[in-house]
Amino acid sequence: MKMIEAITEQLPAWRERVNRLRTQFGSLKVCDVTVEQIYGGIRGVQIQVSDISYVDPYEGIRLRGYTIPEVLEYLPKKPGSDFPLVGGLYYLLMTDRLPNEAEADEVEQEWASRSQIPEHVYQVIRQFPRDTHPMTLFSVAIMALQPSSQFASKYAEQMFTSEGLPKGDYWKYYLEDSMNLIAKLPGIASFIYNYKYRNEEIVSYSPELDWSANFARMIGKAEDLRYQDLCRLFFVIHSDHEGGNVSAHTSYLVSSALSDVYLSCAAGMNGLAGPLHGLANQECIRWVLQVREAFGGHVPGKEELTDHLRRQLQAGKLIPGYGHAVLRVTDPRFTVQYEFAKKYISNDPNIELIGRVFEVLPPILAENGKVKNPYPNVDAINGALQYHYGVKEFDFYTVLFGMSRILGLTAHIVWGRILGKPIERPKSLTTAMLEQLAEKSLQSLER
Ligand code: HAX
């Protein structure tokens, strides 16, 4: 694979950079940690390095240094589509280089050749009651693939033979496992969808189509070229959001114990399934429909909507799709989806309402200064787009998010192995220890 060559070429320089920082500047202090940060979700504590992506509070995400509009513009596309091949995005995340068409296509072809899903994975899914949340099924399906981990078997094998597995080569097995897992995601996700909501169909992968279009085809949207474009857009923009969010941090932490890609990604997906993380997208479309219902199915005018939103906030309710832990501007991933919606489905009443909420809500949220970011995040619109194209099962949306996010998670994990990162082990304190520190600081103030 060209990806392996591209990474191998860069290895000495990357290792040199990290070694220099660790050996020459190992004791350099990066930031202080406050008691509030310790109790407040480690918010803002700079304890990770992520070269895959970086979230600037005022600019939004950059993937390998490129903004969302740049990524959408520069990545290779399939003839006839204005939206990127996910294979090209993966090449960029993994190698830190923009791919040409052949390089993007090679990743897509690799996925096609690795897409066969073992029968037992379908059986595992079928064992669960049909009303099981699709994220649970997604996570167990990934776990069911774990016995095929090349890293796990190679690692176990070398423990008992004279033939060693050099630490510097671990990443190649992690990359192999990542490629094998990602290749199967359209088949797994579509089967979960078909099992729960359609006809239980298992559809085989078509090498003629790209990864995104394969997923669309597998859930019965072979003819819907616009939906296939939406999938390309969705899978590219949800792929990564730095290393500190729950799913990225979880999978990276698990992989630091040399747990393989399957174990690590399933753990990440369990984090993504939380209502404060990936589950938020299903809440947003539900909320949009509820607002319309409150107005007899219509889209309320600005004044009516303002009153309604104020009443909700006064009642202590959260407005889903607004706010962010890091961002302090409108999420560019909201913007590109909103542009897609305005271009292709502007007459959809849910999109009309989302546009109106975008006009009136930010100043209201900003009024009392409590909400740090009064602007929409990525989830404010993605469910409404799926809903328009007929994917109306809200609880499935987080699986779509998960398919995309695994692209980023695996890039972080593989690079963790490339750079030889050790097992993570932060240190705990007791409340009594913090109280002692507090006492000491009081005494020194009194002196
Ligand atoms: N509506 C009403 N109140 C909100 C709000 C919203 N959309 N967003 C934040 N607030 C409130 C918080 O509840 C908090 O109130 P209290 O102090 O009374 O608890 C206060 O404003 C300060 O919160 P914050 O510091 O601005 O936001 P946080 O960093 O704590 O939380 C969240 C960020 C995204 C979790 C939050 O804004 C929220 O719950 N938004 C709605 C749910 C949502 O859209 N989630 C998806 C986020 C995108 C994502 O990461 N997806 O994976």
UniProtKB/TrEMBL annotation:
It comes from Anaerolinea thermophila (strain DSM 14523 / JCM 11388 / NBRC 100420 / UNI-1). The gene is gltA. InterPro entries: Citrate_synth-like_lrg_a-sub, Citrate_synth-like_sm_a-sub, Citrate_synthase, Citrate_synthase_AS, Citrate_synthase_sf. Belongs to the citrate synthase family. One of its GO terms (molecular function) is citrate synthase activity. It holds the Pfam family Citrate_synt. It comes from the Bacteria. This is citrate synthase (unknown stereospecificity). It is an enzyme of class 2 (transferase).
